[in-house]
Amino acid sequence: MHLESDVLVIGAGGAGMYAALEAARAGASVILADRSLIGRGGATVMAQMTVAVALGEQTPDSWEYHLADTLAAGRGLCNESLSAMLCQDGPARIREMDAWKVGWAREGDHIAQIHAPGHDRARCVYVDVLSTGPAVSRTLRTQLNLASGIRRIGDLAIVDIVVRDGRACGAVAVHLSTGETVTLAAKSVIIATGGLTRLYRRNSASFNMGGDGYALALRAGAELIDMEFVQFFPIGHLAPRLVGMDPIMWDPFRYKLGGKLLNGELQEFEEDYATLDARSDGKYVLTRDRATYAISKEVEAGRGSPAGGAWLSFQHVPDAELRRAFGPVIDRLAANGIDLTKQLVEVAPIAHYHMGGVRVDECMQSTIPGLYACGEAIGGANGANRLSGNAITEAFVFGARAGQAAAKNALSASSHWSDAAAAPTVDLLRSAEKRDTPNLAVAVTDLQALMADKVGPFRTEEKLGEAIVEIDRMASELGAAPPSSGMSFDPLLIDWLDLRNMLQVAKAVAVPALARKESRGAHQRDDHPGLEEAWTLNQIITLNGGEIALERASISKKASA
Amino acid sequence: MKATLQIKRGTPDTAPHVETFEVDFEAGQSILDGLRAVRHNADPTLAFRFACINANACKECMMLIDDKIDYACTVKLKEGVTMLAPLPKKALVRDLVTEIAPPNERLHGRG
User: Contact B40/A336, CB-based, under 8 Å?
Assistant: First the structure.
């Protein structure tokens, strides 16, 4: 099947849906494709609570204060133009979502804003304790229903961007529920596929977040930036098995009620690792990166909890106070057999967000004309470490910007589509055949373990070197042609296509991590502790003859907005 | 503990058949955990839908569990037999996967 549109948006999370809405508003015809269902997969729907925006509703504020906090969190690596755009455009987008009845929580006559770690004041809006993401997704889905000119297609997995004469002209996809190959001609293509947290054993995001967009961009010839910076969330839920909840749900509990972290010997250990941090807000003993460090080191020293993390205790908090703070959540915990007044839970650092991504200009265009990116899929706005609450804001802001720019480009261009340029990927899909293959679901798990153990929050030259060798071995074992079990919704084909992307992206993380001989933000090298001023630069990744190539670039300082 | 999953499999073009898998589990694990274990340990061709894994946010893993419509991510594995089947009133795609997207979000079958 062949489809045509002005703009193709890949990924229907917060950024992709916003991009589609803005492109359609600008008069472009849009196809919004997702490998899952529209507005269901991805990270947005999982988002738990806070959205950072300088509304000044709770307390006087300005986008410049938000920018200062964003730059400080980014440890010197932010692209200041992108960071400024995030903070400056944020209020308009959040108010637009408010007009669309997302239901931001209110306090009296104003939108409620809370003070989250790393911010200098109360700045984060939310819907309720656990439902901000679902409310955001629902609101954007409703707007898509009301808009005209947007064709939404779920179960459509994009396999490659098609590039002709150095210009993006569409994509090749596989329609999962029928297995058919679909070619899509588009004058502008927007990557809105989110991050790469599925590369890690423990993660807070969805099955779909294997870094598809980074692999698509690389193979299209685009540049990636800051790929070594993967953010780990220190107290992701580990045990007992908890279903129906976001694994990062303990954060507001710990924040509001002061949950205590204990090691395997039931001793508090945070103080042992506490360092003076000028930006600490006093409620957390340790910032996120230090807490991740402390838990990991306790586990390494043989003082972990049974499942390999730390204990989190609320036993000092009276039942009534727990219920007052988190009423409905306490019931959901009870359904999982968890009573916080009587037991401890286990937590561990989990992969949460990716700071790196597609390198874009201020119009969200990549280094390939006609190819745009937005949301978590881009790199630069958050530098070496993301400030809490910036993820949903950037999804809206960069999504809207990408949609506008992609529409403008499409409405002034003619189609560049070429069957010949699409042929290699069409042939790849056609080459899928029934054959014996190692269990690729196991290979995915192996890669996740490798990344967690060797390319996790704490890195060494030795571990990173081993990881790169193993990634190369797995890639050669994967082979050049996908297996097939025939029929529709083929799990073997999906695993193979996923692994093809995941292995490429894993290497795109490991290679710059090996090169960066310092510790900064989310990139911590045990063999190179401490920040090195000489490393205040960005690393750029491209694909050159099928191999990952690395270059350096100086920081983009000046906001020209 | 061991759970026995009796899974109704097939496609629109083939007669449905039931296959039985045994999975080891720990208290608290979900049906979705069990299905992922089956793919991992026994049969990687088993098809089922999910995106968010266990947050019950994506709502994609809905299926018939012991003759009741429910989410695979929230129903827990139990000792003994659990019967799994695709949603009865949705078009079958493969195994436990059905066509659950609204018609105007599909490639085919648009109104």
Answer: no
Cβ-defined contact of B74 to A208 (cutoff 8 Å): no
Residues 6+ apart with CB under 8 A from A216: A10, A158, A160, A161, A171, A191, A193, A501
- Quick one: average pLDDT of A233-245? 85
Tell me how crowded residue A297 is: count the other CB atoms within 10 A of its CB: 17
The first and second tokens of residue A183, run together, are 């070619």
Task: Tell me which residue in B32, B45, B99 faces A492 most closely, judged by beta carbons.
Answer: B45
- Which chain B residue shows the shortest CA-CA distance from A483? B45
User: Per the CB < 8 Å rule, is B58 touching A37?
Assistant: yes
Question: Which pair of structure tokens corresponds to residue A528?
Answer: 């190179």
CA distances for A174 relative to A80, A184, A426, A468, angstroms:
38, 11, 9, 29
Question: CA of B53: how far to CAs of A207, A468, A475, B73, in Å?
Answer: 7, 28, 26, 7
For β-strands A2-10 and A181-191, DSSP reports them as: parallel
A243 to B76: CB separation less than 8 angstroms, yes or no: yes
For residue A158, give the nearest of A223, A196, A208, A226 by alpha carbon.
A208
Of A153, A206, A337, the CB nearest to B107: A153
The H or E element containing residue A420 is helix A419-430
Among B57, B74, B95, beta carbon nearest to A45: B57
| A54 touches A90 (CB < 8 A) | yes
The alpha carbon of A399 is separated from its chain's Cα centroid by a whole number of angstroms, namely: 14
* A394 has pLDDT over 70: yes
- Strands, sheet with A357-358, edge to edge from the N-terminal-most edge strand: A357-358, A224-225, A538-544, A547-553
pLDDT band at A325 (very low <50, low <70, confident <90, very high): confident
Interface check for A487 against chain B (CB to CB < 8 A): the answer is yes
A 490-519 residues inside an 8 A Cβ radius of B: 490-492, 495
Chain A residues touching B53 at Cβ < 8 A: 206-207
What predicted TM-score, i.e. pTM, was given to this entire model?
A: 0.95
What ipTM is given for this predicted complex? Answer: 0.96
Q: What is the mean pLDDT of chain A?
A: 92
Non-local CB neighbours of A437 within 8 Å, separated by 6+ positions:
A483, A492, A496
At A101, list the tokens. Answer: 């009845």
pLDDT in tens, A42-64: 888 888 778 999 999 999 999 99
Q: Is A288 part of the annotated catalytic residue set?
A: yes
Tens digits of residue pLDDT in A253-290: 777 777 889 999 999 988 777 654 444 444 455 667 77
CA–CA gap between residue A263 and residue A344 (Å, rounded): 11
A207 touches B at CB < 8 Å: yes
Please, is A388 exposed, middle or buried when counting C-beta atoms within 10 Å of its C-beta (0-12, 13-18, 19+)? buried
Catalytic residue among A288, A290, A516, A520: A288
| pLDDT tens digits along A106-165 | 999 999 998 888 899 999 999 986 788 999 999 999 999 999 999 999 999 999 999 999
- B43 touching A (Cβ < 8 Å): no
Give the number of other Cβ atoms within 10 Å of residue A544's Cβ: 10
What the block records as the tokens of B51 is: 């995106």
Which residues are CB-neighbours of A237 under 8 A, at least 6 positions away? A245, A247, A248, A249, A250, A345, A346, A347
